[in-house]
Write a structure and sequence with these properties.
The structure is a single chain. The protein is built from 10 helices and 11 strands. The protein is α/β, with parallel strands linked by helices. The strands form 2 sheets. It has a 6-stranded mixed β-sheet. The protein has a 5-stranded mixed β-sheet with strand order 8-7-9-6-10. Helix 5 (119-128) links the parallel strand 7 and strand 8 (133-137). It starts with a strand and ends with a helix. It folds into 2 domains: 4-92 and 179-210, Periplasmic binding protein-like II (D-Maltodextrin-Binding Protein, domain 2, 3-Layer(aba) Sandwich); 94-177, 3-Layer(aba) Sandwich (D-Maltodextrin-Binding Protein, domain 2). Bound molecules: 1-O-pyrophosphono-5-O-phosphono-alpha-D-ribofuranose (PRP).
């Protein structure tokens, strides 16, 4: 039986899913304890786990380097990999939102300046409203942009809302609900559907542990 390759995002989310796979008998404990090794083969359950950068999971799965993977919906919406989205893991729950200064009002006589790590999500959202925007792509600390008048609004992840509040910003509109998803390579799913469905079923039983 060929090993099932699973791409897990480095960090807390990946570790929780890995722990659930161990408890579900799909991988052994080494997989969890050996998180410095990039590839962990497990005799138990016939799985091989890879630890990858969260934003790279979709690339591994789309190209078949991994059969399945765990990735945030934000990354799926932004990078749109050609994969099957099989399951909501109900963890990493947050939302993609537009936010700005509390007194923000849209001046429609000029393009809206939008700072974001998610240019594709922002562009699609405003294109649907026929609102012209000037996308300002940043790598992090997006909330700074409206404070320094680098942008009018931001499109970013909001989880508790604390970062917005602490910086005198407010949520304007929710764009999408975000959480971690289990994805599968399309060919792998055609040929190994039973095994992949089995992993889904075992994770489904453990969604409370993962979240
Ligand atoms: C994310 C996001 C917000 C913050 C939202 O940042 O970009 O800044 O979390 O969380 P909250 O609503 O609970 O305050 P992250 O920590 O990923 O760092 P970043 O600035 O590099 O994006």
């Amino acid at each position: 039986m060929t090993q099932m390759s699973i791409a897990l995002p480095k960090g807390r989310l990946g570790e929780r899913v890995c722990a659930a796979l161990v408890r579900a008998g799909m991988a052994d404990l080494d997989a969890l304890q050996d998180s410095r090794r990039l590839i962990v083969s497990s005799e138990t359950g016939g799985c091989r786990l890879f630890w990858v950068k969260p934003s790279d999971v979709g690339v591994y799965v789309e190209r078949g380097a991994a059969d399945i993977g765990v990735v945030g919906k934000d990354i799926l919406l932004e990078t749109r990999p050609q994969v099957y989205e099989l399951m909501d893991l109900h963890t990493g729950v947050c939302r993609m939102a537009v936010a700005g200064k509390k007194d923000f009002s849209d001046d429609r006589s000029r393009p809206l300046r939008v700072a974001t790590k998610y240019p594709r999500i922002a562009s699609a959202y405003y294109a649907a409203q026929s609102r012209e925007i000037d996308v300002i792509r940043l790598g992090g600390s997006i909330e700074l942009a409206p404070l320094l008048d680098l942008s009018d609004v931001i499109v970013d992840i909001v989880e508790t809302g604390a970062t917005l509040r602490e910086n005198g910003l407010a949520e304007i509109t929710k764009i999408a609900d975000i959480s971690a998803r289990l994805i599968a390579n399309k060919a792998s799913y055609e040929f190994q559907r039973e095994r992949i469905d089995e992993i889904c079923a075992r994770l489904q039983e453990r969604t409370e542990e993962i979240s």
